[in-house]
Amino acid sequence: EPEVTQTPSHQVTQMGQEVILRCVPISNHLYFYWYRQILGQKVEFLVSFYNNEISEKSEIFDDQFSVERPDGSNFTLKIRSTKLEDSAMYFCASSASASIQYFGAGTRLSVL
Amino acid sequence: GEDVEQSLFLSVREGDSSVINCTYTDSSSTYLYWYKQEPGAGLQLLTYIFSNMDMKQDQRLTVLLNKKDKHLSLRIADTQTGDSAIYFCAERGRGGGADGLTFGKGTHLIIQP
């Protein structure tokens, strides 16, 4: 069964460093998403991406964040200068029709 | 803004039915979802219901939607130890385009032998 793949599973970084989280969506999907889940809190929407541009973004998705689809298969989330409060589980999701989203296993980001 | 609320814990005996409840505030929700998260794993889509439906059944899972009360429930029949997980309710509004989902905090389902 096709699935969304995220790498790495765990990323440790120093405060102020840039990180790139990677996702390979399901191959025929057109819509791509990033969410985050701070420990003990809700899963929160960050951004959606369709037709090579950002479709929607939440208040969390400020100038420190960017997304890119550098080739036909990868979808990345970049955090320019990480802060302690960026520590969270980051989930990528993809969808064929924007109705049903399929999630990856997540990348745990630890900012020290 | 939109909000989704769930109880944090539910404890049931193996073999009994589990009913996980969720309330939401967005009256324009088009789809409502149940996701399951096992320890160390991602969010697995269990089932979903379109807002013009009242009920959806899929094997051991029954979803009930009360639009008037903005209440969604997930019933798991004959609960097994493998059902032990966190269950997230989520909704998608009618904003159009690639809307993000709004999630509840998740209900930890604990199975007693």
Please supply descriptive tags for the structure shown above.
heterodimer; A: 112 residues; mainly beta; 4-stranded antiparallel sheet; globular; B: 113 residues; 6-stranded mixed sheet; 5-stranded antiparallel sheet
Describe the structure.
The complex is a heterodimer of chains A (112) and B (113). By secondary structure, chain A is mostly beta strands. Chain A is globular. Chain A has strands at 5-7, 10-13, 19-24, 31-37, 43-50, 53-57, 65-68, 75-79, 88-95, 102-103, 107-111. Chain A starts with a strand and ends with a strand. In chain A, the strands form two sheets. In chain A, strands 2, 4, 5, 6, 9, 10 and 11 form a seven-stranded mixed β-sheet that branches. In chain A, strands 1-3-8-7 form a four-stranded antiparallel β-sheet, with no helix packed on it. In chain A, strand 9 and strand 10 (102-103) form a beta hairpin. Chain B has 113 residues and is an all-beta fold. In chain B, 0% of the residues lie in helices and 54% in strands. In chain B, the strands form two sheets. In chain B, strands 2, 4, 5, 9, 10 and 11 form a six-stranded mixed β-sheet that branches. Chain B has a five-stranded antiparallel β-sheet with strand order 1-3-8-7-6, with no helix packed on it. In chain B, strand 7 (61-66) and strand 8 (71-76) form a beta hairpin. Chain B is globular and about 45 Å long. The N and C termini of chain B lie far apart (40 Å). The mean pLDDT of chain B is 91.
Can you lay out the helices and strands and say which pair or pack?
The complex is a heterodimer of chains A (112) and B (113).
Chain A: E1 5-7, E2 10-13, E3 19-24, E4 31-37, E5 43-50, E6 53-57, E7 65-68, E8 75-79, E9 88-95, E10 102-103, E11 107-111
Parallel strand pairs in A: 2-11
Antiparallel strand pairs in A: 1-3, 3-8, 4-5, 4-9, 5-6, 7-8, 9-10, 9-11
Chain B: E1 4-6, E2 9-13, E3 18-24, E4 31-37, E5 44-50, E6 55-58, E7 61-66, E8 71-76, E9 85-92, E10 102-103, E11 107-112
Parallel strand pairs in B: 2-11
Antiparallel strand pairs in B: 1-3, 3-8, 4-5, 4-9, 6-7, 7-8, 9-10, 9-11
